[in-house]
Specification:
Length: about 140
């Protein structure tokens, strides 16, 4: 892989996932200020990821998965769920953050129970997709 952007994208996704897990841990421990800081940082890293991802793919186009057999099925299953949930999660994240900022915490908590695991899944599978694509020697098409 010649282009550094996919590695940056995976790094940002991984950071977002770590920050989400930390934020969850902090809120479970009752530390609201650290929870807010982690969730804000997770939103920032996810936003930077999206910008980086769009720039990279505008330059390079798509990358074909070279694997065959069962691993190909696994890859496309992960890619499909990741892509669908990435589209679904964006308005959920924005709404969840809006509710927190407006201090509508009952509604925030109710929605966050769905937003957090889906956002975490999208972050984690983003890293998995990176590993599967670039560890297998895929090249841009």
């Amino acid at each position: 892989m010649d282009h550094p952007w996919p590695t940056l994208n995976a790094f940002l996704n991984g950071c977002s996932g770590i920050l989400l897990a930390m934020g969850y841990g902090f809120i479970r421990a009752g530390n609201v200020s650290k929870h807010r800081a982690c969730m804000g940082a997770a939103f920032l890293t996810s936003t930077l990821f999206l910008i980086s991802y769009l720039i990279y793919h505008a330059q390079v186009g798509s990358v074909r998965f070279q694997g065959t057999g069962t691993i190909r099925t696994v890859y496309f299953t992960i890619l499909l769920t990741h892509t669908v949930l990435a589209v679904v999660i964006l308005p959920m994240i924005l709404r969840t953050l809006f509710l927190a900022i407006k201090n509508r915490l009952v509604e925030h908590k109710r929605l966050a129970r769905w937003t957090l695991p889906l956002w975490f899944y999208v972050s984690l599978t983003g890293v998995v997709i990176y590993v599967m694509l670039y560890a297998m020697g895929n090249t841009p098409v």
